[in-house]
Design brief:
By secondary structure, this protein is α/β, with parallel strands linked by helices. The protein has an eight-stranded mixed beta sheet, with helices on both faces. Strands 9-8-7-10-11-12-13 form a seven-stranded mixed beta sheet. Strands 1-2-3-5-4 form a five-stranded mixed β-barrel. A hairpin with a 4-residue loop joins strand 1 and strand 2. Helix 1 runs parallel beside helix 9. The longest helix has 20 residues. The radius of gyration is 24 Å and the shape is flat.
């Protein structure tokens, strides 16, 4: 016999009565920090120095989370968000904070995390920053097809949601890309395959401007004519990405975009990882080469090398560079980029850098090491430091928590933190990117 149960309400996530709290800090995710009944309360949207009205949304033993209801007394660093979609889009989350205050908060958060990892005061030596707006040379937009109205929405995901917030422009995108969004939405709604469209990627690099459409069924002649007309009018190349990872233009030819890094051209396929902030990327690579200071004949290992963003500039110094990457097609692209640049003293390998590396042909004594891992960090790779014994290590991080954790491994292996820089790769957001130099004692 079937039995029916009424689920008990999850009281830990029920909204509380409104509380008035004093915000005294900001965490590394951009949420305001307050105290209530002996617990730390995290309040997205609240700023240090503010008095705010909130409702608790989640209660744990040592902390709670709250929803900002009203700012009763604003902090001097509070400002009006520039983007009209700020309240709905899940992208930028610090536009309500002045730029100087954003960078100071990120600097403080980075220094605090590293200080705790090293059990001493750690200072950020440098902030590498650039333009605060229109800095993104690449973005992936989401689509959502409404079967009732038979319309397609184009935009970004709402915060912590699968829903799409339709947008007309984006002030952190390159201006030429932002200007494409509104006419592009109109175009996509005219296509007969609009219900079969996946994400849309916009790219603006030195080799050109690209519109990449993820399609689950091939567009017909009418759709192709509309796309070709749009391409001509807006000076973009339209590329179609299929289920197998292939990417072709409207005539069926394979197209590979490329970005400049000094005298180098680094080609990549849509879907490959590249840094979206070209200005900060160039400054970051230059600083990494300066910090490592490789000399001719030295052996330099670049782990998580991608399409050669660091490997090729390092190889220009005359060093013998080895790049290792977990995505096979990016390994192939990096090798192609090296050949195109005429760099013979660089080689690339495919490898799972979270696995056992003992049998890898490239693992051995090196002079310098560069790491540029994903958010999970490089903890597993650093277990092999004893075999590599580099004199210097540059760690480029997109997650300061992983950097702090992994720096403990370096400390245990006899390395000292020599330099620390904040990379303001994503202004108007809480994201903290950093690079650190470690030297063997």
């Amino acid at each position: 016999m079937a039995q029916f149960f009424k689920a008990k309400p999850n009281r830990s996530k029920q909204l509380s009565a409104k509380l008035s709290l004093q915000v005294n800090g900001l965490d590394h995710l951009g949420a305001g920090i307050a105290q209530h009944q002996g617990k730390v309360v995290f309040i997205p949207g609240a700023l240090p120095g503010e008095t705010v009205s909130v409702q608790l949304t989640e209660q744990k033993k040592q902390y709670a989370r709250a929803r900002l209801v009203k700012v009763e007394q604003a902090a001097p660093c509070r400002t009006v968000a520039a983007c009209p979609h700020y309240s709905t889009c899940g992208g930028c989350d610090l536009q309500h904070m002045t730029l100087d205050a954003q960078r100071q908060a990120k600097t403080d958060a980075l220094a605090n995390l590293l200080s705790r990892a090293w059990d001493r005061e750690v200072c950020v030596d440098e902030v590498i920053a650039g333009e605060p707006w229109h800095y993104r040379r690449r973005a992936r937009l989401a689509t959502w097809y409404d079967k009732q109205t038979k319309t397609l929405q184009l935009g970004f995901r709402r915060e912590a949601s699968k829903q799409v917030a339709a947008i007309e422009s984006c002030p952190v995108l390159a201006q030429v890309l932002s200007a494409l969004i509104e006419p592009l939405s109109g175009l996509l709604n005219r296509l007969s395959v609009k219900s079969s469209l996946g994400h849309v990627e916009l790219i603006d690099v030195e080799s050109g401007r690209y519109l990449v459409l993820r399609v689950t069924r091939a567009p017909g002649d009418k759709d192709r004519a509309l796309l070709a007309e749009f391409a001509t009018k807006h000076s973009v190349q339209v590329l179609l990405a299929d289920n197998d990872g292939g990417c072709i233009d409207l005539q069926g030819a394979a197209v590979t975009p490329g970005y400049q890094l000094g005298e180098l051209t680094l080609a990549f396929k849509p879907g490959n990882f590249i840094q979206v902030n070209g200005e900060i990327n160039a400054a970051m690579v230059s600083r990494a080469v300066d910090w490592l200071a490789p000399t001719s004949g030295e052996r330099v290992l670049d782990l998580f090398c991608g399409v050669g963003n660091f490997s090729l500039p390092l190889a220009q110094t005359g060093a013998q560079v080895i790049g290792v990457e977990g995505v096979p097609e990016m390994v192939a692209q990096a090798s192609c980029n090296a050949r195109h640049a005429g760099l013979a003293e660089v080689s690339f390998f495919h490898g799972d850098l979270s696995a056992d590396l003992s049998g890898e042909p490239w693992l051995g004594k090196i002079d310098k090491l560069l790491l540029d891992p994903a958010r999970a960090g490089a903890f597993e790779s650093l277990q092999w430091l004893g075999k590599m014994k580099p004199a210097k290590v540059v760690y480029v991080s997109c997650n300061p928590v992983s950097l702090a954790r992994d720096s403990k491994v370096l400390k245990e292996q006899g390395y000292q933190l020599a330099k620390l820089a904040l990379l303001d790769m994503f202004p108007q957001t809480h994201h903290i990117e950093a690079m650190a130099l470690f030297e063997r004692c």
